[in-house]
Design brief:
The structure is a single chain. The chain is mainly beta. It has 1 helix and 24 strands. The strands form 3 sheets. It has a 14-stranded antiparallel barrel with strand order 1-3-4-6-7-9-10-13-14-17-18-20-21-24. Strands 2-23-22-19 form a 4-stranded mixed sheet, with no helix packed on it. A hairpin with a 2-residue loop joins β20 and β21. The radius of gyration is 21 Å and the shape is globular.
Length: about 350
């Protein structure tokens, strides 16, 4: 029962993460560490944001669709020691202002990342375990601003390291688990060009975070689950030569998720999850003009033998924001996201 329900919850968190604070694309969940035996999973995620406003004049939708994937593998080394390898995309952004009679017309921005994480978990006994590992992140970005004399900035892909540490407590008799994980910041140093000319380097920090994940049985075949995630987005700043504070955030964010999952048959389970993200303040940069996020997610899971197929959909309302530089006003925006995950225990 527990394996079916927690995978459903994980898929809905995955679908919601593309509307979390800052430019986050992955919640970096450690759920895979608690799978039984050897386990492998593949995931795919889609989001269709609708973000528009006045900047000044109607912008049209500035947020293209988002596609991304994930991979995870977990295995036991001994009765007490296990490990996991996780591939995901921790941050990302896609912004494209349509050609319209507004100052930002034709402006585009993109951030791509890929992370590979290795984690060890050690069972101390009596339900207590600790985990920790290293993360390698590859990131690159580009910005084109026609209104700023056709400013065209592109970075080379940079690799940087981070680490994570955490602990968990479990009570298997009631399907309860609480896990907390600290993820360190990852500091990049980008070589970049402006309008084709090398102009040196600038630094960017993927911020540190703390995540609390929990679940507990509340009735037969019924599981309460959720998470709280804090991210220090005030550490994130993109300031290439000649364009200070191209992207920055004035406030840190906290994301809350709370849901209920239930098994209906030996093979089928479903769940519902509510989410709220505090955002990064009412005033933002022009490349991420949203504030708070409120979401509702629905999930379903089918298990046959050692295979579990899970899918989830999320609808999010994106709070309005005013932007710096051009004093744009964005409101009434939303996002529809979905994800699918295939897991195999062997």
């Amino acid at each position: 029962m527990v394996r079916i329900l927690k995978v459903v919850g994980g898929v809905m968190c995955m679908a919601t993460s593309v509307s979390a604070g800052g430019v986050e694309r992955s919640t970096q969940s450690m759920d895979i560490l608690f799978q039984d035996g050897r386990y492998i999973e593949l995931g795919a995620q889609f989001a269709r944001p609708r973000i528009s406003g006045d900047a000044p004049g109607p912008t049209g939708n500035i947020a293209p669709n988002i596609f991304q994937g994930s991979f995870g593998y977990k295995a036991d080394l001994t009765d007490r020691l296990s490990y996991a390898i996780i591939a995901d995309q921790p941050i990302g952004a896609r912004v494209k202002y349509p050609v319209r009679p507004v100052l930002l017309s034709g402006s585009t921005a993109k951030i791509d990342s890929f992370a590979l994480t290795g984690v060890l978990r050690y069972d101390l006994g009596n339900g207590v375990s600790v985990h920790g590992g290293l993360r390698s992140v590859w990131t690159k970005g580009e910005v084109f601003l026609p209104f700023a004399a056709d400013y065209d900035m592109q970075t080379k892909r940079d690799q940087a390291w981070g680490y994570l540490v955490g602990a968990a407590y479990e009570m298997p008799e009631i399907a309860a688990r609480v896990a907390v994980t600290y993820n360190s910041k990852v500091e990049h140093e980008f070589d970049h060009t402006v309008n084709g000319a090398d102009v040196g380097t600038f630094d960017m920090t993927i911020p540190e975070s703390v995540q609390l994940e929990f679940q507990t049985g509340i009735a037969e075949d019924t599981l309460l689950m959720g998470s709280v995630r804090w991210v220090r987005w005030t550490e994130f700043n993109i300031s290439p030569v000649g364009q200070p504070d191209l992207v920055s955030f004035s406030k840190n964010s906290v994301t809350y998720n709370l849901g209920v999952g239930r098994r209906f048959t030996p093979n089928w389970a479903g769940s519902v999850m509510l989410g709220y993200d505090t955002g990064n303040g009412r005033t933002t940069g022009n490349l991420q003009p949203v504030s708070t996020r409120r979401s509702l997610g629905l999930g379903a899971s089918y298990t046959q033998d050692n295979v579990t197929i899970s899918a989830g959909v999320t609808y999010a309302r994106l709070g309005g924001a005013r932007t710096r530089v051009v004093n744009g006003d964005f409101s009434g925006n939303s996002l529809i996201g979905g994800g699918i995950r295939i897991g195999y225990n062997f």
